[in-house]
Amino acid sequence: MTRSTFKDEALGAFEGLCRRSHDAFDSVIAALSARAAAIGKASRPNDEQRAAARTEGWIALPTCPPSGLIDLAEA
Question: Within 13 Å of residue 36, how many CA atoms lie on the same side as its CB?
Fold first, then answer.
């Protein structure tokens, strides 16, 4: 994901901070990736990748746009 991915997304009060700070932006990306994994909207290793993922680890990337990870009812 890049900052342009969020062009149409609402970062709310944190938008300015994310645009000024790579650390803040990285934190948002990590949180969205964790959210995607928690709700089943993240990439998973296929059969061919599974053995390596068990020993090397797997970085779960969202398989949907950021808006699909935010439940506005909970916000």
Answer: 20
Output 72 or 58, whichever has higher pLDDT. Answer: 58
Residue with tokens 């300015």: 16
pLDDT, tens digit, for every residue of 36-49? Answer: 999 999 999 999 99
DSSP string, the chain: --GGGGTTS--GGGHHHHHH-HHHHHHHHHHHHHHHHHTT-B----HHHHHHHHHH-----BSS-GGGG--TTT-
What the block records as the tokens of 71 is: 């439940």
In this prediction the pTM is 0.70
Output phi, psi for 62, to 5 deg. Answer: -60, 140
- Name the one residue in this structure whose structure tokens are 């991915």: 5
